[in-house]
Design brief:
The complex is a heterodimer of chains A (171) and B (103). Chain A has 171 residues and is mainly α. Chain A is built from 8 helices and no strands. In chain B, helix 1 runs antiparallel to helix 2. Classes of the chains: A mainly alpha (171), B mainly alpha (103).
């Protein structure tokens, strides 16, 4: 019962945040809508026994990533209202039609038995730090090391882009 | 009333969130908002991972979410650096203005 109430409240909040993100003219409002969606998804992680990743979701996504987004929005300037004109003539109706079809297809596929049947046997999954760490440092050790490489490459690439020289400086 | 919230419900919600993110990609022309839409789509897929992991009683779904978060963080860093670099050169964040490869 508690889970149902949480699902309804935060499901509506997540959808509302997503629609706000797409709809809002001001990018700051878009960022706030996305933040609402991310907090709601963190609640769903908790109700699905993902305690550790819920914490990571709040710290990394709602904290670090959204702060980075807000920094860039402030850097670029929010006063430049986006021109809502569309260059492609049938882009918008076509996009909406395809999205409705896509959503209906995904929801139909979600009615298959493996998403609605009884849970698999064995012990209930419990996403504590111990359980996640045990999986990461045993079975998933190689992917974990590769992500370390990826993060270093991303940081180096971002620094290289930040020192991007404009044409006037090169001349 | 004993209405149980099955993982299928979470997957349906994730599908709705994914479609909203795809709508942001298709309908908006501001590079920052399009980027936020990508983040929403990644979050929707993460929710699917967690729900499926609970259904199948494996922790691997949550480990996959952790890796997706790492990749998304790296992607945000590089993507926002590209947006700022483009803005410094062109003074716009609209993707329609970037119709040619010439710097």
């Amino acid at each position: 019962m508690v889970e149902l109430v949480l699902f309804v409240i935060f499901g509506l909040a997540a959808v509302f945040g997503g629609i706000t993100m797409v709809w809002a003219r001001n990018p700051v409002y878009s960022a706030m809508g996305l933040m609402l969606s991310m907090f709601s998804i963190a609640v769903f992680y908790v109700s699905n026994a993902g305690h550790f990743i819920a914490m990571v979701q709040v710290i990394i996504y709602a904290g670090a990533v959204m702060t980075l987004f807000l920094f860039v929005i402030m850097l670029i300037g929010v006063d430049k209202a986006e021109d809502r004109s569309e260059n492609l003539p049938v882009q918008r109706p076509l996009a909406l039609g395809l999205l409705v079809l896509f959503g209906a297809g995904v929801l139909l596929a979600g009615r298959l038995a493996w998403t609605t049947g009884p849970r698999s046997g064995g012990s209930e999954v419990n996403g504590t730090i111990e359980a996640i760490g045990d999986a990461v440092f045993r079975r998933w050790l190689l992917p974990f090391e590769v992500t370390a490489l990826l993060l270093i490459i991303a940081a180096a690439g971002a620094m290289a882009l930040a020192y991007f020289r404009t044409g006037e400086e090169e001349a | 009333m004993s209405l149980e919230v099955t993982p299928g419900w979470y997957m349906a919600l994730a599908a709705v969130l994914f479609v909203i993110g795809a709508a942001g990609i298709l309908l908006r022309r501001n590079a920052l908002v399009m980027f936020m839409s990508v983040e929403l789509m990644l979050n929707a897929v993460n929710l699917t991972f967690v729900a499926a992991g609970r259904q199948l009683n494996v922790i691997d779904g949550q480990v996959a979410v952790l890796f997706v978060m790492v990749v998304a963080a790296a992607e945000v860093v590089v993507g926002l650096a590209i947006i700022v670099a483009v803005f410094r050169r062109r003074a716009t964040a609209s993707v329609d203005e970037l119709a040619e490869l010439r710097g």
